[in-house]
Write a structure and sequence with these properties.
single chain; 223 residues; alpha+beta; Immunoglobulin-like; 4-stranded antiparallel sheet; 2 helices; 12 strands; 36% strand; rod-shaped; Ig-like_dom; immunoglobulin domain; Ig_C1-set; transmembrane
Length: 223
């Protein structure tokens, strides 16, 4: 005899073992003709997301949905187990455990955070990973972009200052060349005058009146 049955519209709280038994009761004694068991296993649902505190600082949220039995949950950062987190558990037909991890101030190093979960329905633990840079990016400009922008602005400022200094130096040199020195002496060129000097000759005759006499050129004849 073959026995089969189907479970429809299962929910997370429907986890458990279901048994289907076929009996013959028409003729005493009662006899079991067949038994079929089905185990419904609900594995935990694990997710990581970035959230913010009321003051705007970033956090990572590890949310796990599961049904019955206890759940183990850990935070791991680069292989090290962390204890600085807080959790709360709620029940709405199934259990939902939320664990929050506050991120430290942003650094230039990208850090990988992991949420580790173990449950009785699992063959091995579940692990979800999230990079810290994802949460920092959602909170604003990343540190790499800020560093690049600040570096470019610094270089531009240095180049501008150097350019202004060079231009000022060139203007000063040009000004010194265009202005004549103060207090310099000026020596006029000599002017030659072709006036002939006159000599005063005194006559030995008469009243001794002076007679102006100009030199006369003497021409020598050849002998």
């Amino acid at each position: 005899m073959e026995i089969s049955f189907e479970l429809l519209n299962l929910r997370i709280q429907d986890a458990g073992t279901y048994t289907c038994t076929v009996k013959r009761i028409a003729k005493p004694p009662e006899e079991d003709l067949g038994i079929e068991r089905v185990q419904v296993i609900v594995h935990p649902l694990l997710s990581l997301s970035c959230v913010k505190r009321p003051d705007g600082s970033p956090m990572i949220l590890c949310s796990v949905g599961f049904y019955h039995d206890s759940l183990e949950q850990l935070w791991i950062r680069d292989g090290d187990v962390l204890n600085s987190s807080y959790s709360n558990k709620s029940f709405n037909g199934f259990f939902n455990q939320k664990s929050y991890l506050t991120l430290p101030p942003q650094t230039f190093t990208d850090t990988i955070y992991s949420c580790w979960v173990n449950h009785s329905s699992l063959n091995k633990p579940l692990v979800a990973n999230l990079s810290s840079s994802v949460c920092y990016e959602r909170g604003g400009v990343t540190v790499n972009v800020v560093f690049i922008i600040s570096s470019v602005l610094t270089i531009f400022l240095i180049i501008t200052v150097m350019f202004i200094a060079v231009m000022c130096k060139c203007y000063r040199r040009a000004g010194r060349r265009s202005v004549s020195p103060v207090g310099g002496s000026f020596t006029p060129e000599p002017v030659l005058h072709a006036h002939l000097q006159s000599e005063m000759l005194y006559s030995t005759l008469g009243n001794h009146h002076p007679v102006p006499c100009s030199p006369v050129g003497v021409r020598l004849s050849p002998q």
